[in-house]
Structure formats: structure tokens, C-alpha cells
Amino acid sequence: xxxxxxxxxxxxxxxxxxxxxxxxxxxxxxxxxxxxxxxxxxxxxxxxxxxxxxxxxxxxxxxxxxxxxxxxxxxxxxxxxxxxxxxxxxxxxxxxxxxxxxxxxxxxxxxxxxxxxxxxxxxxxxxxxxxxxxxxxxxxxxxxxxxxxxxxxxxxxxxxxxxxxxxxxxxxxxxxxxxxxxxxxxxxxxxxxxxxxxxxxxxxxxxxxxxxxxxxxxxxxxxxxxxxxxxxxxxxxxxxxxxxxxxxxxxxxxxxxxxxxxxxxxxxxxxxxxxxxxxxxxxxxxxxxxxxxxxxxxxxxxxxxxxxxxxxxxxxxxxx
Length: 320
Ligand SMILES: [Zn+2]
Fold this sequence. Notes:
By secondary structure, this protein is of the alpha/beta class.
């Protein structure tokens, strides 16, 4: 996205600038050149620091989403305490409105509930709620959080949910150095899970911290190498299309109460993707408001006729 912007524009500007004659014209041209340089710098900053906008049609678009301009910065400071919950935000990309017709839904609708960044102290309550609804979910867990909350990690498995991978460290600076660095961190997660809960199925589902389109991966162009390396390693990736935006409170422009913002985000993304199959909802079991809102979301999905599926039931990768 950003790779051809810099040099051609700059060299073209320099050439025409030095060919000009006349003081006034030169001054006007200088101002235009400076403005162009600022515009270029801000575009490059956006593509490096912000998220690549996602849409399900496979086309990138800077205007696809009303939230695109405020896409989150995907940098994450490593926490000093290795057992600290990854409460930092924003880390996940907001869902973008689809720009084209999407794959029609199959009959017998399922929604795939996914919980990221745990297990945390809030996860037992999530498990209690899921039990009440007889709903199964996929937990994309962080290895260091599994280590910090071993009983909850065991409970996830014991109650029939999927213990998926969300890397060992969730540290963007570490995992997105290269596909090999990513795989290595995932191996650490696998080792942790094996040691802590004795689980080692040999084939797994995982989710990229920040989503597969995130800027640290290099967006849709860069992610292919990561996905291929992980496929070879026996892992399939799952992005999402429904979201509470609970890792992206920067999107709460109207300063609504957090729960109201999360609920509106859920309704909005549902309105965009309701005809998509599969429907995958991302929630963070790090945020108390999300846990408080969970029964309301499940009531709504049940009322709409959905049942709940596990990502392991789906074939292959799901990339937004
Ligand atoms: Zn995450």
C-alpha cells in the first residue's frame, strides 16, 4: 500500500521544482511542495501505525468503514508483569463495513463465539454464562495468561470449549518480526498449554493479535507468509466479522457509556454481516463491561435463531 508512494512523488516534485523560473512562481511551488510532503508523511504514518481496513470482499478500501480514519495504532508495550492481563488497548482492528455482496449464509445458522486475550479473572464468569445458555465457544488464549490462570484454562477444556492460540506473549514487537518469529512464539504457547493443562492436540486454531490484516504483518500483502507458515505448522487462523469493539474504545466518538458503545458496535457489525457465513463474534474476556453485556448478546443471538459453533468445526482459514 505504501511502498510506491514515496520515491516517485518526491523525485517528480524535485524535478519540476528546479525547472521552474521566476521568484513568485518558485515561492508558490515551494509552498505546494511542502504541503505535498506533509500529505505524503501523514499517509505513510497512517499505513504504518494504523490498521489496514478490512472488508470481506477482498478489496482494501480506505473509505470502507466510517471508523477507518481512526483505525487503532497497533503497537503494544510489553508489560512488566508477565501475568498482567493484556488490558492495553486498542489492539484489535475495528470491523469495516463490507463494500460488496458477501457469500450468502447457509441454512441452520451458527454463530461462532470467540474470546480473546484470556484467560483472566473474568473468564470463570464467562464460562458460567455460557453454561447457562448451553453455548460453546472458542477461547483464543495468550500463553502467559494460561500460565497465570491454569485452573480456568483447564475449565475451558473440561466444559467442552476450544482452547485456541493467541500467541504466547501477545507482544507485537516480538511476534511480528517475521513469520518464523511468529511460529516460534506460537510454539511457546503450545509448550505452555502442554505443561499447564496437558493439552496437545497437534492441530490448532489461532488468531493473530490485531487480526490478520494488521499493519505489523504488512496487511493483506504481508499476511500470506504468516498464514502459510502457520498452515504448515498445523494451525488455521480465524479473523472475525462481528465485534463489540471492546479493544477499540477509541471508536467511542460520542463518549457513550462503555456498555452502550459495545452494544451499538455489536448491532452495527451484525447489520453489516448478518448474511455472511460464518459469523464470528470477537469478545475480550479482559473487559468487565463485555462480560456484563454477554447475556444480552446471547439472548439476542438466540432470539435470532442462532446456535453456537466452535471454530474447529470450520474448514481452513477464515480471513477478513
Ligand atoms: Zn488480542
